Amino acid sequence: MISIFLAEELERATTDIPDTYFLQYFCDSRRDECNTGVAILRGLLFQLLQLQPKLIDYILPRFEVEKSSLFTLETLWKIFEAMICDAMLSTVYCILDGLDECEESPLLVLLKKLEALFSRDLSSAHCLKLLVVTRDHPEFISEILSNFQCIHLDTHASKEVDFDVRHFIKVKVDDLSAKKNYPSSIRIVADQLTKYTWSEVEEALKNHFPPGLEELYARMLLQIRMDRRKTAAKILLWVTMTFRPLSLLELSTAIDIVVEPSASFSREEVMRDKVSHYGYFLTVTNDKVRLIHRSAKDYLLRKTPDLNAKFEFFRLKEEVGNSEIAQKCFDYLQNGALIGDKVDLASNSLHLKAFPLLSYAVLYWQHHANSLARSEYVVNPLHPFYNEKSQTFKSWLGTYWVAIGKEEPPNLFTPLHLASWFGILSLAENILSKKGLFETQKLSFIFKNWGGINKRDSYGRTALWAAASQGHESLVRLLLENGAEINLTGELERGSRVTALFCAAARGHIAVLQLLLKKGGNVHDESETLGYFRGTALVWAVGKGDKDVALLLIENKANWQAKCEFDGLTLTMLMMAAIGGNEAIVQLLLRKGAKIDEEIEIRSGFSATALSVAIEARNRAIVQVLLENGADIDRATELKHGSKVTALYSAASNGNEDMVRLLLQKGADAEAGIQNNGPFQKTALIAAALNGHEAVVQLLLKNEANIRANINRKVAPGTVALFVAARAQNEAAVQLLLRNGVDINTTMEVGDRLRVTALYVAATTGDEATAQILLKNGADIEAKIKLGSMFEGPAVWAPSFTGQEAVLDFLLKAAKKLQLRKKRM
User: pTM, whole model, 2 decimals?
Assistant: First the structure.
């Protein structure tokens, strides 16, 4: 409520302030898809693009390079950081509400990035003003946010806060009273309350109202009738510990509610009625059952045992809850729900109606099973489910793989693959143990039939590969201890084959990577992935911007001088780091001795340096780092046909105002342009004008760009911005330059033989429209031009030399009108 109030006020306050914007994001425990770091950043980026569409320039270059990895938290953060540093934004206010309702792991990453954003030396470079509204749970939230100004909404802590909270409540109560048209009797009660002192009211509240959330939840549980508590505990277990909210029908199946066919009410209606027995602890929205708030889940899963047996009865122990749900789902799969072939969970509604819990059981039983003890029957490898000929196992595997939509289900997928893929350590231990809890000889025989520890599925993946790809450290350690081969390759995606080490590095699984390196994983192995990348694990980590992985690989002798092929380009490690946008990795490579101005042919006819690549990727922070470390700001890189361009030219040509400003501040030569074997040089100003980038044109003009470059050479008129625009018949560019103060009657002199004007250029190319624009803006039709010994006189006759009769006729008429006006004067 407070966040909504603040959001309304800030949005109203920023509406009429130029280049000032307001963003907001509200996490919601009832919508899991909204409660991740990726979801938050995508929401903020979407709002920024709506408010300032030009910021799309920070996304498109990255999308062309990073494809599907664009939507990782790391990449989205780099885009967000670049946007809030853009000069076109003056101030961006942002409210983040309910961060305590997010998934803990991505939330920790996001908060650390926000902490770094506001605490580092470059904090003045961005325009973000951030307000976070959250509980102090998990603990790391308060630890990280304690470095910033905090307001604790405890009315005892501050008179100012006390006054603000009271004012807020009064305003909202008045609004509610007006909207609901409450009767005067309620006002009378309110008036009566004012006759009591605060201490009297406070004392009454202490005795009759719970002081905090935990006490409130405890009281709500105590209000459940004794004969309903056993069912309530079961419902609360499922609602709290499932990975997604269950529907009323799913929940009724999970807790075994039976309704006779002859009954006049449905299972959903019975379930809804049972949920209503538990007060406000549970809510039903769109038939999905949820806890009232994330804090209710924290209360039920509290670690500290309760001395009060009534409260302890409802406290949930994760290992017990996971065991109950895993067993229920595991048994459900084998009780007729998966008879026959795989089931399409997205479309087979009749089958799902008959087996309501099937979808959840298929997708999540294995996740609940990864914390089970070895003695549980669910992880007994001799269970019929795991039999090589088990139709239920094959049906489950096919149904699961189709549901996640990644690829065709793998063949030759053994129970050890399953344990490794989903991190079910107890199942893997039971399979591999020489002294297991089950029939060791029988199990050993079966395991050999499965193909042993290095058995590959139809995608070439071993159990070790699967465990490493998913980041299951304990599984990787167990498999290595039992002789798993470390350097076998498996298919990552779309035919790409990589080692377990490469996969662990690509996905940032540091602990797994350390294990593989310790056991002799090959850091020099080159892999071809996704059809557009070929290189080592280090190159991938550098391009992704994963400093920790890159540093670990370098410390283990990975070749930081290696080159890679990326989307048809050949790039150095430093170039990959520049694309990835991680300053720390760039600094690391420079410390290791990477050549900052190394220029290589990235594709046929094109060369680049790390600086030119960083500018193309619009990575301002990386450009600054490279320049501060001595990168040659005016070094020209090669285009086709022998032409060379500077960093400034490239930025101006693409309309990158922010980068042009930075390069000019750092001393870039504004007069430098395309260097080629032709008769003229095309400057950054000319490129910006021809491409219609007015803001860049203004910047260059303010920085005294030489509009009349190279006038001492016998060159074509294209060397002057206005002349080039006229020669190219680019009316928009001509108007842009004139609008920004370029002298329309500038004459270009080449030696002592040629002297021409922009009007002459337009006239000789037959461009009547541009000639009209020039005349309308004050071009002197009588200005003298000189064409060596051939002609010297007014520009009006210029079209006659190139046979442009229509333009000649137009100019003669204009000249005649001019003469008539002069006579009248």
Answer: 0.72
